[in-house]
Amino acid sequence: MAKVLDGVEIAAEIKAEVAAEVKELAARGVRPGLAVVQVGHVPASEIYVRNKVQTSEELGFLSERITPPETVTTEEMLDVIRALNDRDEIDGILVQLPLPKQVDAKALLDAIDPAKDVDGFHPINAGRLQAGRPALAPCTPAGVIEILKRSGIPIAGANAVVVGRSDIVGKPAALLLLNENATVTICHSKTRDLGAVTRGADILVAAIGRPGFITPEMVKPGATIIDVGINRVTEREEFDRFFAGNEKREAAFEKRGSVIVGDVHPAAFEIAGAYTPVPGGVGLLTIAMLMSNTVQAARMRRGL
Ligand code: NDP
User: Fold this and answer.
1) The domain spanning residue 50 has which CATH number?
2) Is 52 a catalytic residue?
3) What residues line ligand 1, using a CB cutoff of 6 Å?
């Protein structure tokens, strides 16, 4: 029976550690500050931002939510970022993606002070990560590493295969695994005979954005599967392909008209040695690592 790598438990552990650090910093007169910039009203962003702000408040951060209108220009957004860069009490700046079409997202991310770049998307932090130097690492890939380490899954020497090469997930996940001494292969949409590559994985990270894409025959029995994917399934036919006979999911689908599925077909988990469930896996770590990065930024900016 495959071991479930429980994101709820691990995220709670990390948040408790962050809370302890916040207390320690408070004794030195420091309160970590996180500013979240959310443009317009994308429903998914609303939920993510609410969770981020709520968690940062629970942990005792100074927490700010800035909500420019949907019509905001790049120049106006750059002014918002510059003002946050200049404020000493703000340690972390996060711009919630996606942004409206008229806004140049890259220009904004490049304008964030790298010392306050708690999402780890600035080229300076990407470069530091690449060079194996201390860096604010992107939250989701950092969460992948935490899950592996805290679950006692050996990374050094393991064959790690990352499917997906985005700047936000796949690429940094591969670099972090490499920095932990895994032998890393990165796959993408042009990879030939993907299954042959993924079957060689001791650790398989799926960050593709396609529901249930990794099927059982693509997985080595006993492998550790980290499923980063978050996909909403609304069609009955697709639902049945993943969850036919699963009473709990059936009830959820009936109630809400949709369920969340990862990039890995649930049947593939059955032959794994260990896996992260969706929901309840990597997703929860993303917010926990954002909190951890904000405390790290608060310390580093003050030389603590
Ligand atoms: P992107 O769309 O930016 O990247 C997807 C990657 O998958 C690309 O590199 C693409 O290859 C590759 N890919 C697409 N189709 C195939 C295929 N047929 N075979 C092999 N590779 C393929 O997605 P993200 O990296 O932003 O996100 C990936 C997933 O992770 C999504 O489900 C997203 O919702 C989820 N996510 C979850 C988070 C969390 O908190 N848990 C946070 C962020 C994302 P190519 O480069 O060649 O196009």
Assistant:
1) 3.40.50.10860
2) yes
3) 140, 163-166, 168-170, 187-191, 194, 207-210, 228-231, 263, 282-283, 286
